[in-house]
Amino acid sequence: MIDIETLPGSEVNEPAYRVILSRYPQVHLFERVASPQDWDVLYAVESLTNPRLRDAVGDIRLVAPEDRVYGDGASWIMAAFTHPPVDGRGGRFNRDFGIYYCAAEEAVAIAESSFHRARFLRESRIDKTTLEMRVIRAQLGPATLHDVRHLVGDAIYDPDHYGAAQQLGYALRDARSFGVHYQSVRAQGECYGVLRARALSDAIHWRYLRYHYNQGTIIDVQALDGSGRK
After folding, report:
1. Which residues contact 107 (CB under 8 A, 6 or more apart)?
2. Taking a C-beta distance cutoff of 8 angstroms, is the pair 91, 193 a contact?
């Protein structure tokens, strides 16, 4: 087990990219809250007429009041924390709590999401399909994250088994860390696992992508905005 007290800090203040399924719409409830004190009242009122609100917004109790964010783009951020993993495997650093996974470069975020989407489809025994994806760009920082980039080769970087990394994630969460800065194992580049929503701001829809999946692999990523970027 890694002693988090020995980890260096990484000062981060830059845009970060995250790729999600485009079928997840923006909820807009967080954008409509003028202050954290208004949240409970608005949620209670909306819930009376919208029984599906809990599914869309997620469990707000999973985010400490001091870490919640509101205003433009807040729903893109909050969704990662109010919807913990449900597949039993979890993410690299989390199992039953939410983390906002993102990357310093869009190409790395695409590589990461392509791997996880392909694995899900393989395990679902789907042979061929296309997926509409959405790229979210948000400002990460200024914040200090725990830096594990120098630990490549450690068990936390196992490409398939997340047990050691999840132990570290729980330790960081309990220590109220803002997150972890690590090397991607799916591409050449760096990733972030953000543990507290208030480290993020100014989230916007960046563009749409279409993933083409065939026989276990994402074989092509198509930009749907005409930019030609991949």
Report:
1. 187, 189, 230
2. yes
Q: Which value, to the nearest 10 degrees, does the dihedral of the CA atoms of residues 122, 210, 109, 169 take?
A: -50
Find all residues with CB under 8 Å of 40, minimum gap 6, and list them.
none
Contact 171, 100 (CB under 8 A): no
Distance of CA 158 to the CA centre of its chain: 19
pLDDT per residue as tens digits for the range 22-63: 875 555 556 655 566 565 655 555 554 555 555 566 777 789
Any bridge partners for residue 131, and if so which?
Answer: 211
CA gap 178, 229 in Å, rounded: 31
CA distance 78 to 39: 13
Q: Is the pTM of this model over 0.70?
A: yes
Q: Is residue 46 part of a domain?
A: yes
Q: Round to whole Å and give the CA distance between 221 and 230.
A: 7
Structure tokens at 185: 């194992």
**Is residue 230 one of the residues assigned to a domain?**
no
229 falls within a domain: no
Average pLDDT over all residues of the chain: 88
